[in-house]
Specification:
heterodimer; A: mainly beta; six-stranded mixed beta sheet; five-stranded antiparallel beta sheet; 11 strands; B: seven-stranded mixed beta sheet; four-stranded antiparallel beta sheet; about 0% helix; globular
């Protein structure tokens, strides 16, 4: 069975600092992996996804994630945080016909 | 603009009321989903419809009753809810339930409060 673990329910960074949100997955088959972002009072928006091919995936708003099979990880990064990045971020893995979501990481950005 | 709309955005109801949540997708997708999002818990998948047929029902209490009259519309009928049912209910759609066309597009959600 597939599962997702997001380390750290809250992450705080200063504006301009590196953003690193951690995601580890468990999957018995090659995984499809996703990062979603949820801004206050909104639904989830897809940031990026990994299916096959290049392990470094670039998404919207300057985010990227790297699939590392040996570490079963799919961490999300952004070189320089912006105030508008403050939101909740969800990692997800595809399990046959449904997505399995992590518990989310709330990102705070301080000026 | 995600192409998935939900109404109402906010709903307050008593435990004896009957209400319905509506979801509409304008993306030409074949699959639609209902999720429940509670504080400090992972998103809970409630129902999945593919080509208007229910393909997943994750042991959801019968006080939640889904309806999918066509591939563009999805309803969640609510009756005799409990306070613990208060949550954000999210609707999503995808082109298909499997394969590479699995990306789900979410609506903004309905914030439900049960008094």
């Amino acid at each position: 069975a597939q599962s997702v673990t997001q380390l750290g329910s809250h992450v705080s960074v200063s504006e301009g600092a590196l953003v690193l949100l951690r995601c580890n997955y468990s999957s018995s088959v090659p995984p499809y992996l996703f990062w979603y972002v949820q801004y206050p009072n909104q639904g989830l928006q897809l940031l990026l996804k990994y299916t096959t091919g290049a392990t470094l995936v670039k998404g919207i708003n300057g985010f990227e994630a790297e699939f590392k099979k040996s570490e079963t990880s799919f961490h999300l990064t952004k070189p320089s945080a912006h105030m508008s990045d403050a939101a909740e971020y969800f990692c997800a893995v595809k399990n046959t016909d449904k997505l399995i979501f992590g518990t989310g990481t709330r990102l705070q950005v301080f000026p | 603009e995600t192409g998935v709309t939900q109404t109402p955005r906010h709903l307050v109801m008593g435990m004896t009321n009957k209400k319905s949540l509506k979801c509409e997708q304008h993306l030409g997708h074949n699959a639609m989903y209902w999720y429940k999002q509670s504080a400090k818990k992972p998103l809970e998948l409630m129902f999945v419809y593919s080509l208007e047929e229910r393909v997943e029902n994750n042991s959801v209490p019968s006080r939640f009753s889904p309806e999918c009259p066509n591939s563009s519309h999805l309803f969640l009928h609510l009756h005799t809810l409990q306070p613990e049912d208060s949550a954000l209910y999210l609707c999503a759609s995808s082109q298909d339930t499997g394969g590479l066309f699995y990306e789900q597009f979410f609506g903004p959600g309905t914030r439900l409060t049960v008094l």
